[in-house]
Write a structure and sequence with these properties.
The structure holds 2 protein chains of 2 kinds. Chain A folds into 2 domains: 178 residues, Response regulator (Rossmann fold, 3-Layer(aba) Sandwich), CATH 3.40.50; 172 residues, Rossmann fold, CATH 3.40.50. In chain A, the strands form 3 sheets. Chain A has a 7-stranded mixed sheet with strand order 7-6-8-9-10-14-15, with helices on both faces. Chain A is an alpha/beta fold. Chain A is globular. Chain A is built from 10 helices and 15 strands. Chain B is of the alpha/beta class. Chain B folds into 2 domains: 123 residues, Response regulator (Rossmann fold, 3-Layer(aba) Sandwich), CATH 3.40.50.2300; 47 residues. Helices cover 45% and strands 12% of the residues of chain B. In chain B, strand 4, helix 2 and strand 5 form a beta-alpha-beta unit. In chain B, helix 4 packs across helix 6 and helix 5 packs across helix 6. Chain B is elongated and about 80 Å long. The chains are: A alpha/beta, B alpha/beta. At the A-B interface, helix 5 of A face helix 1 of B. Chain A: InterPro entries: Peripla_BP_I (IPR028082).
Chain lengths: 366, 200
């Protein structure tokens, strides 16, 4: 007899970031379907899906509603860090667990949250380590005026200095702002080796397009000479950017293999999909049956679309592969792949500049 | 220009948690591990090794002065108070220990990383300030020495202003503070030193 388990889904299907949250929602649903269709499974999930419509203040009440109106104690959900921080008090009150399937800026380990996507030592640091020897160490940092941009750029400043480079500029746009002309002018004037793009959604799309036009006027600003680097760009946003994304770089635990046809294939999809499989394995092992006890991650690996992954029991962040991809024809060509899973280090406590950039360069001390 | 803190690298830092074993601190121990610290729980006394620790958490509810191998207010590392009872007497005691930040019990999932960084910054600022006060105090107490050195140097008939300029020139050529230079001159004057000051 199969055990039916309510499973909360809390993804926005409208609003600014619906492309990303929609992909995670679809991934979770597809995994639920796969689990339910798998005759070898002893659990089956019934989804309890609520839609916060991209409004941050809706997440906590809807999470509360999931816990109040169903027996669900696990929720796959949230895309932005704001929404994740909003639901944490609700999770703590109900002893629930959130499975968070998106890259984020790190510096958090909450017992009520399982972090299924990359943190900075799994996205930003390896991306810069790949780029600096190939393109140079001087960067221009961009971000949306929001914690993702602030914190990712803050770490980037240190990493760039460690690599012997300079930060030639750091600029923020209000969320949703598409007026990028000033950014382009400053980038043109400072001539960096690369641009770290932590803009979100429409701001990012507008920047790619304007940068493409700049490259047509000045050959320094082509992806071969001065690429745009993103830590959260996936297949899902490439159609919105169009041909100007071509040749630029991104990092993530997974990129769609050549020939993949699913239109929502992206790591936002696969991370949510993987979260459902990991949860199913835990439930079958009886480790997640009690909502109060710690989840039984120790000593286990899980077969998922991200590969055979593990979850660090202390920080509840995933050990993940790291892939660096270059956009080509609406998908990513892999330009680098980690040989093994990379352990999470959400507080960058084990960050060692020498491991990435060799001997630290001498600096003038004033 | 203000100096910006780098990525705070807490990996491998050591923390002593001075608290009786209690479920209230299990989250704290787990979170410290997740952040990358080596944390040790001890009660009721801090061992001598604690003197070399990078952080010390202490129980503000049941704590007492004799638990610490240092005098109240002289901890050689950042202190973080674990506060359960908010009785003013207990807060007063925690402050007297020199708590640089605090966490409210039961310790939850959040706030620990912030408490570490705030305590670290507060401790460093306090230590830097104490060093500066110490050196200013030492310099103030040398005021009389400077007066005596200027008097000694102006004995050759040069005015007080030139004598002072000469003292500064000596301090510069000896690469010492003006107070140290003054002390040397006074000592020479008194025949304690045998060398001769040479001003260029």
């Amino acid at each position: 007899m199969r055990r039916s388990v309510d499973l909360g889904l809390l993804f926005s299907r409208s609003g600014n970031y619906r492309l990303l949250s929609g992909a995670s929602h679809a991934g979770a649903l597809a995994a639920i379907e796969a689990v339910n269709a798998d005759a070898g499974r002893t659990v089956a999930f019934s989804p309890v899906a609520l839609d916060p419509e991209g409004r941050t203040e809706r997440y906590a009440p809807l999470c509360e509603e999931i816990f109040r109106t169903s027996t669900a104690r696990h929720v796959i959900g949230c895309t932005t860090s704001w929404s994740r921080k909003e639901v944490i008090p609700v999770l703590e009150k109900h002893g629930g667990t959130l499975w968070y399937p998106c890259p984020y800026e790190g510096f958090e380990t909450n017992e009520q949250v399982v972090y299924m996507h990359a943190c900075p030592n799994q996205h930003l640091v390896p991306l810069l380590a790949h780029v600096v020897p190939r393109f140079g160490a001087d960067g221009f940092l961009l971000g949306s005026n929001y914690i993702w941009g602030w914190e990712t750029n803050r770490v980037a400043r240190d990493v760039i200095l460690d690599a012997g480079g300079k930060v030639l500029g750091e600029r923020y746009l209000p969320l949703g702002d598409t007026d990028v002309e000033r950014l382009i002018a400053e980038i043109r004037a400072t001539r960096p080796d690369f641009i770290l793009n932590n803009l979100i959604g429409p701001s990012s799309y507008a920047f790619f397009e304007a940068y493409g036009r700049l490259g047509a006027e000045d050959a320094h600003f082509t992806p071969e000479r001065c690429p745009i680097l993103s830590c959260n760009l996936t297949e899902i946003e490439l159609p919105a950017i169009g041909p100007s994304a071509e040749g630029h770089l991104s990092v993530g635990p997974w990129f769609a293999p050549a020939g993949a046809t699913a239109c929502d294939a992206s790591s936002f999809y696969t991370a949510a999909y993987s979260a459902v499989l990991v949860l199913a394995d835990l439930l079958e092992a009886g480790d997640a049956a009690s909502a109060d006890g710690p989840l039984g991650f120790a000593g286990r690996t899980f077969q998922t679309p991200l590969g055979a992954i593990a979850i660090d029991p202390a920080s509840q962040h995933a050990h993940l592969p790291i892939r660096i991809g270059r956009v080509r024809g609406g998908r990513f060509d892999l330009v680098e792949s980690s040989p093994a899973l990379v352990a999470p280090d959400p507080y960058l406590s084990r960050y060692d500049p020498a491991a990435h950039f060799g001997r630290p360069p001498l600096r003038v001390v004033s | 220009m203000t100096r910006r803190e780098r990525i705070p690298n807490l990996g491998g830092a050591t923390a002593f948690v001075l608290h009786r074993p209690h479920p209230a601190t299990s989250t704290l121990m787990r979170q410290l591990g997740a952040i990358g610290l080596d944390a040790v729980e001890v009660w009721p006394e801090l061992p001598a090794e604690a003197l070399g620790a990078d952080f010390c958490f202490f129980d503000a509810d049941l704590g007492f002065d004799d638990q610490f191998p240092w005098k109240a207010g002289e901890a050689p590392m950042p202190l973080i108070a674990l506060i359960g009872s908010e009785a003013p007497g207990r807060i007063e005691w925690a402050l007297a220990q020199g708590a640089d930040s605090h966490l409210v019990k039961p310790v939850g999932n959040s706030g620990i990383y912030a408490a570490l960084l705030i305590a670290k910054r507060g401790f460093e600022a306090r230590r830097a300030l104490a060093g500066e006060v110490e050196s200013l105090r030492a310099r103030v107490s040398e005021r009389q020495t400077i007066v005596r050195a200027v008097v000694a140097l102006s004995a050759g008939g040069v005015g007080e202003e030139r004598a002072y300029a000469q003292l500064r020139a000596l301090a510069m050529s000896w690469q010492v503070t003006i107070e140290d230079a003054a002390r040397r001159i006074v000592e020479l004057e008194q025949g304690v030193r045998r060398e001769h000051p040479v001003a260029n």
